[in-house]
Amino acid sequence: MLQQTTVQTILPRYQQWLKAFPDIQTLARAPLQKVLKAWQGLGYYERARNMRLAARMVCDRFNGSLPVRYKDLISLPGFGPYTTAAVLSIAFGQSYPVLDANVRRVLMRLAGTKSKENQTPDKSLLSFLSTFFPRQKAGEFNQAMMELGALVCKPRNPFCPGCPVQDFCLAFKKGEQELIPAPRARRSERIETVVAIIKEDGKYLIQRRPAEGLLAGLWEFPGGKRKPGETLEEALRREIREELGSEIKIEKLLLKVNHAYTRFQVILHAYECRLKNRPQPGKRPLRWVPLRSLRNYPFPSGNAKIINYLEGVSQTK
Ligand code: SF4
User: If you count DSSP H runs as helices and E runs as strands, how many of each does the chain have, helices first?
Assistant: First the structure.
């Protein structure tokens, strides 16, 4: 849950999650759509899907208890070296170092490593860390390093005067704190998408995304990306023809939504439309859903903003 935001922001969501899935068995039995719905808005939906798969595997293979051997734990879906080391050290007191973005930055500054963050191999950071990694209380040490990075040794304006490891910090000695890690060139792609808001007999037409790929298994209003050279309306007609086998009459632009993902920005244009002919059954399930029930479905954040808008409009009527 913490991939894209802070602990403070995520706490209520974490509590809600624990209430919905209080133990591994409940999560293992839960329908995927319920799990995706509980994760809505947190991004990286693969994590929710993997957590459910891991819960199932724990029930099937490990008698319902999380395994405590590295090779067993890392075999579960979603458990890479970072999560495995974090769980084993923090939950089970085992001596594994954890490298997250915060810890990497602290280590690079302590060691005075001036390369880009993603160009410094884990191996060299772990080898440096091993020179002072404690034999006991690895979990507390790991959490202390993560907190140091999150609260003191921040990417910008690190608070060196209050830093407990200032005496050992090469970057501080050389006055190079803010040069480490070297900044990455950020490339934020802009993607224009169009969606059709189609309402008949008080119900909206939505469709499920494919089971694989970006935002897999979530629901959305039908539509897609604009291709080079197309107008927005041409793109919408083509997408609806391809996805539903239907022709549409575009009534008006309802709203424009901007949504930023980690590496790209989506500008979503939502048009009120009418179908000229019935949608053809395709590979992706379609549903007609009344406004009050749309929130029961997991939607990507951009589509959820459209639902907020539709609810706002219906309340003013
Ligand atoms: S002295 Fe400054 S740069 Fe060095 S670890 Fe502490 S906060 Fe980070």
Answer: 13, 7
Residue 172 CA, ligand 1 centroid: distance in Å: 6
Model pTM? Answer: 0.69
Ligand 1 atom closest to 164 (CA): 6
Which residues of the chain form beta strands (DSSP E)? 189-200, 203-208, 219-220, 223-225, 248-260, 264-275, 286-290
Ligand 1 centroid, distance to 161 Cα (angstroms): 8
**How far is 265 from 88, CA to CA, in rounded Å?**
36
Helical residues (DSSP H) of 62-153, grouped into ranges: 70-73, 81-90, 101-111, 122-129, 138-147
Q: Could you identify the atom of ligand 1 that is nearest to the CA of residue 158? A: 7
Highest CATH level, class, for 189-316: alpha beta
For domain 92-185, give the CATH number: 1.10.1670.10
**Token reading at 168:** 């050992």
Closest residue by CA, ligand 1 atom 1:
166
- DSSP, collapsed to helix, strand or coil, labels residue 223 as strand
Task: Please list every protein residue whose CB sits less than 6 Å from any atom of ligand 1.
Answer: 106, 109-110, 152-153, 158, 160, 163, 165-166, 169, 171-172, 177
pLDDT mean across residues, the chain:
91
- 307/292 Cα distance (integer angstroms): 10
Domain 1-79 indexed as CATH 3.40.50.300: no
68 alpha carbon – ligand 1 mean position (Å): 34
Q: Which atom of ligand 1 is nearest to the CA of 166?
A: 1
What are the pLDDT digits (tens) for 179-191?
A: 898 877 666 788 9
Per-residue pLDDT reduced to its tens digit, 106-157: 999 999 988 776 677 888 999 999 999 998 999 999 999 999 999 999 998 9
Segments making up each domain of the chain, as ranges: 1-79, 92-185, 189-316
Distance (Å, whole) CA 182 – CA 210: 38
Q: Which of 103, 108, 110 to mutate to test the pocket of ligand 1 (most atoms within 8 A of CB)?
A: 110
